[in-house]
Amino acid sequence: MLMLYSGQEANMRQQKLGRSDINVSEICLGSMTWGTQNDYTEASAQIDKAWEQGVNFIDTAELYPTTPLSAETQGDTEEIIGKYM
């Protein structure tokens, strides 16, 4: 999970993350299609739109991109997020 922070105010409701003092938006941006179905440009547009709406975290998983088609696509999601940041 990746959390984004800024002074940006939005109407998105937030919840505490577990027992931490971190607040995250109730809606999460999933990244499972990045790297296979969506390229960097499309993923960046999705992140921008989510951020504008107050979403402040992105879900990643060890299997993303979803059902990796090959060893070459494993890690593409994280590379896209890293490049964006």
TrEMBL record:
UniProt organism field: marine metagenome
Residue ranges of every copy of the NADP-dependent oxidoreductase domain listed in the record: 26-84
Claim: Transmembrane is one of the keywords in the record: no
Protein known as: NADP-dependent oxidoreductase domain-containing protein
Keyword Oxidoreductase in record: yes
GO molecular-function term, one example from the UniProt record: oxidoreductase activity
Pfam families: Aldo_ket_red
SUPFAM superfamilies in alphabetical order: NAD(P)-linked oxidoreductase
PANTHER family: NAD(P)-LINKED OXIDOREDUCTASE SUPERFAMILY PROTEIN, NADH-SPECIFIC METHYLGLYOXAL REDUCTASE-RELATED
Transmembrane intervals: none
UniProt entry keywords in alphabetical sequence: Oxidoreductase
Gene3D superfamilies in the record: NADP-dependent oxidoreductase domain
